[in-house]
User: Fold this.
Amino acid sequence: MSDLSAFLTPLRRVSGVPRYKRGFDTVLVLLGLLAIWPMFLAIALAVRLSSPGPVFFVQSRIGLNGRRFDMVKFRSMYCDAESRRAGLEAQSERAGICFKLRDDPRVTPLGRFLRRSSLDELPQLFNVLTGDMSLVGPRPALPQEVAAYPDEALGRLAALPGITGPWQVAGRADLDFAQMVALDLDYVRAPSLWRDLTILSRTVTVVATGRGAY
Assistant:
């Protein structure tokens, strides 16, 4: 992997964080939290009662310009999930770097529902409020995944990572790594408010169908 800063410099000239992002994200997230807080609390209670362990799962991810941050989700796996990952990686059903397993034995019964409906992602609204994420952008990757990135894929780090993005509305885990990178780089080079609104509206349909979610 080449020097990250040198590789991202030309992409920053055409991407970076658009001026509309912060205000757009903050307003929508605050309105959303006001609307969904009863459901948020109900999910938190269900996670707590469904299996031993914390309500939230906090994981280190790589964000804008390669900066690490703690991404938050509702816990959808058993507490020993991280220690069991290495033994399952050879069974990954997705071509490329990112690990995906449709019938992952580490996922709890409730977690399967939360993942299929994408409700496990709701706590990331707080990541948006802190400025670590945006509503729309490339999904934040794990440090070990970024360490294995080919140079082209590093371009994903030239934009704020998102809760949803072009990869999610195009098929999520049904797409391979190379397809995901191509979609994300296209977004990084040409973000716009209209594009974000379009992706958010398409996300509603994708979540409703559960396409590519596991």
Observations:
- The beta strands are 56-62, 68-74, 134-136, 162-164.
- Residues 18-208 form one domain.
- Residues 166 and 183 are 6 Å apart (CA to CA).
- The radius of gyration is 17 Å.
